[in-house]
Amino acid sequence: MRDHLLDDCPPRRHPLNPPPTPTSIGPLVVWRTTRGDGDEITVDWRHEDDGEIGFTAGPAVRLRFPTTAYLEAVRALDRELMDATGQRVEELERRGGLPGVDLNLVQLRREHEDRRRWLSRNLDRLATTDWAVVRHGAHLLLGHGRRTDTRTG
Predict the structure, then answer these.
(1) For residue 3, how many other CB atoms are within 10 A of its CB?
(2) Distance between CA atoms of 23 and 41, rounded to whole angstroms?
């Protein structure tokens, strides 16, 4: 079984990115599991009712679905968001900016075109984690394996 992070963008692009654990945003945790021919995304939602925000869902919800369906939805969201943002940038370029707002339209266009490539750039990356080494290390750390001290043999 292999679990992969879904959001392991470098921190400079995503300052809320946690260390190597399942992606967590507030009460939402997302992870990918591959086992044999299976490949699925799990979304785990847990929240405590503090009386301030009402949710129609229960305090704990777990959903699983095929990774292909998840990636298809992510690509569709990205495409729609980038198209809508592109239209807004074009409108600002046509208007020459906004009155009273210091806006660098050339830089705005450049940043938007760079963002258009973020998803494909990150989805095209291949994970290079040596899971056999990780499992072996976890086995040792959990005390299930015999560790030999190189100083004493």
Answers:
(1) 15
(2) 11
Give the global pTM. Answer: 0.61
Residues 132 and 65: their CA atoms lie apart, in Å, by 26
Continuous H helices in the chain: 67-95, 105-116, 118-123, 131-141
Nearest by Cα to 119 from 92, 88, 80, 91:
80
Phi-psi region of 129 (alpha: psi -120 to 50; beta: other; left: phi over 0): beta
CB-count burial class (<10 Å; 0-12, 13-18, 19+) for 94: exposed
Q: pLDDT tens, position by position, for the chain (153 residues)?
A: 444 444 444 333 344 433 434 555 567 888 888 888 899 999 888 777 777 766 676 778 889 999 999 999 999 999 999 999 999 999 999 999 999 999 999 999 999 999 999 999 888 887 788 888 988 888 889 887 555 554 544
CB of 31 closer than 8 Å to CB of 22: yes
Q: Are strands 38-46 and 2-4 parallel, antiparallel or unpaired?
A: unpaired
> How would you label 108-133 residue by residue, b for 16+ Cβ within 10 Å and e otherwise?
beeeeeeebeebeeeeeeeeeeeeee
Residue 77 φ/ψ, nearest 5 degrees: -60, -45
